[in-house]
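ingest -> validate -> predict -> emit
validate: passed (alphabet ok, no gaps, 199 aa)
predict: started
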Amino acid sequence: MFAQLRSPMSIRVEPTISTIYHRGMINSGLLAHLERFISTELASQLPSPPDDIHGTLVPCYDEERYCGPNSAVKDLYRLDLSFRIGSDIAGTFKGDLRYSPADQSFFPRYRHSRLVVITQARQEAQKLLSNAVHTLCRRICEEHITEATCPKCAAGLDIINSPALFDVSCPQRCFNYNFHRDPSSGEFQHGHLFFSQQV
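emit:
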């Protein structure tokens, strides 16, 4: 964490916010709390303190019907940031936050989710992991391998290699490679490669 973060920070609020609630809520106090959150939770993930931070903050639900007294979504905001070190973009962040007016603090929309700033190092590591998973799954499919380990955490993988389904997943939830197949030809039809979080 950078205790003395002194980066110029510019957070633009969408000028066309339509609700009375959000026009009253988004003020200098809320933005000060947001800047503190960005400094401690996001900018601290960079390799060195950023020289400047720019971004936008908008309500996730900017309609009056979502702003009632018992609304569970009126304090959700979407934050989009870029961090610069020198002239280079050192990282980006896009995600949903929840603001607590009572505590005057921000936290992830989902309490236990991890907020990740996408840096060049993380992008490169994610690409390497993705390539390793594709290569491994191709071998499992072509060579009918029944036992393999996760390239990220080394846990034993759960493997289904049937005529109708090809599924390789890590029990630690590092990734899931899931494709339905044509039972007659064995060709992959549709599916996904899902990673639980950025590297």
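The longest helix spans residues 120-143.
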